[in-house]
Every structure is written in C-alpha cells, then in structure tokens.
Specification:
The protein is an alpha/beta fold. It contains 7 helices and 6 strands. The structure holds farnesyl diphosphate (FPP).
Length: 245
C-alpha cells in the first residue's frame, strides 16, 4: 500500500485528534488509562509511518485545555504516562531523526512534565526528519486569545500598526508560526467534530473520520488515508480543473 503513495503529492502536515481511548479500554473491560497506554503504541506506529514516507510535520492532540476537567485521577495518570512515554521513546525518536516540539499552555503542565518535555525538545532539536508536535494543554480558542493579546501588546508598543495586520500577521502570532497548515486532519473514535483544535489552520484542510478507536489505529490506516487524500481534488475556493467553462 505504501508503494502506491505518490511521493510528489504528499501532505506536508498531518494533524490527528487521537480519540476513543476510553471507549476502547471499556470495550476491553479495563480502566480508561489502559486505553491511553495502548494509544502510545499507535503514536509510535504513526510517527514511524510518517517517517517512512517522508512527511515533514505531524501534530498530535495529546491533551486539550478542556481535558483538565476530567477526574484528577485520569489527569494525573495521563501526565505520568506522558512523562514516561517521552522518556522511553527518546531513543527511538533520535534513531528516526524525529524533532519533537510542543504547542499549548505548557506552563500549566506539572513541573516534571515540563522538564521531560523540554529535555526531549532540546535533544531532538538538531534532527532533520519528521517534526512531531505535541499539542498539550492546547485549544484553538486559547491560542487565538493569546494571538490577540500579542497583537494588542505589539500595537500598544507601536511595533504593529492595526491597519497593517494581515492573515500572515495572525498566522505568525500563532503557536504554529513557521509551520505549514495541515493538509489532512484525522479524528479517530467515530465522532465528526474538530473540538477546538487548530481552528485557524484547518480552513482548507481535508477531514477524515476513520471508524477506529485510537488504540487500534496503525501506520497502515494512515497510509490508506493519504491514498484517499491523493485522490481528492483540492480547490481552495477556486473552481475545479474539470469544471465546465
Ligand atoms: C482521547 O481519548 C485521548 C486523550 C485525551 C489522550 C491521548 C493521549 C495519548 C494517546 C498518549 C499520548 C502520548 C504521547 C507520548 C503523545 P478519550 O479519553 O477522549 O476517549 P473516549 O472518547 O473514548 O472517552
């Protein structure tokens, strides 16, 4: 299947809402955290799958602003899993030349999590393969609010003239500055919504909602989605190549 992917029409950036861990765990008669633990295997498979075909950017929604409202036990377990996974996966990330980055309100994460994350970001910074971005304590409304604050601050210091603000100015003040917009957004778990993820950046993104829980998702599922993507015609608001004149 991988061989059928056209290397000249690869998505530059793939974003994933990794949903369905809790339901998957229940289906297996286990606690929710069991699903999150298995979700890490899917993360590994997808990172490998992106690297194997030469994808440049992968953004994973690992913890949303709203996820803080889950029971403390689950939040704590997720943070512990995150610290452990980042630590355990570092060797594999280095081997695959993966550069790790993070977006979100990172200061709100527990100190240990911030330290482990920063250590992995620093260690992988020279890598030139896939850039994997973890969205942590992230939501698009948080990001857009931050953008408005930054713009207001720059304007009050006369470093930015309101009449000169363009779409490019906005993009440059977002957490994703310097990253291409996602070409593909995948949400597993069967729900068809975007749940406060990259709302500015997905204006022209192709959306995919595979009927799989995240712990069941593997690189082969990703490759199938990329094949589907390559068969879609993207028009960006213009008329299609085959439209009648
Ligand atoms: C959503 O499923 C999933 C999360 C809130 C957490 C995702 C985190 C991981 C897979 C671990 C990430 C680890 C690394 C290293 C990036 P859900 O709990 O909302 O599932 P449900 O909809 O079935 O309840």
């Amino acid at each position: 299947m991988k061989d059928n992917i056209n290397p000249n029409n690869l998505p530059r950036h793939i974003a994933i809402i990794m949903d369905g861990n809790g339901r998957w765990a229940r289906q297996h008669g286990q606690e929710r955290i069991y699903g999150h633990q298995h979700g890490v295997e899917s993360v590994r498979s997808v990172i490998e799958g992106c690297g194997e075909i030469g994808i440049k950017y992968l953004t994973l929604y690992a913890f949303s602003t709203e996820n803080w409202n889950r029971p403390k036990e689950e939040v704590d377990a997720l943070m512990t899993l995150l610290v452990k996974s980042i630590h355990n996966e570092l060797e594999g990330l280095m081997k695959n030349r993966v550069r790790l980055q993070a977006i979100g309100n990172l200061q709100s994460l527990p100190a240990e999590c911030q330290q482990e994350l920063q250590a992995a970001i620093d260690a992988t910074a020279p890598n030139n393969g896939l850039t994997t971005v973890l969205a942590l304590s992230y939501s698009a409304r948080w990001e857009l609010t931050e953008m408005a604050r930054k713009a207001a601050l720059l304007a009050s210091g006369r470093q930015l003239q309101p009449e000169n603000i363009t779409a490019e100015t906005v993009a440059s003040l977002l957490a994703t500055a310097n990253m291409p917009d996602p070409d593909i957004l995948i949400r597993t778990g069967g729900e068809c919504r975007v749940s406060n993820f990259l709302l500015w950046q997905i204006a022209y993104t192709e959306l995919f909602f595979p009927n799989l829980m995240w712990p069941d998702f593997r690189k082969e599922n990703l490759w199938q989605i990329i094949l589907d993507y390559q068969s879609r015609e993207r028009r960006f608001g213009k008329i299609g190549e085959h439209a009648p004149q």
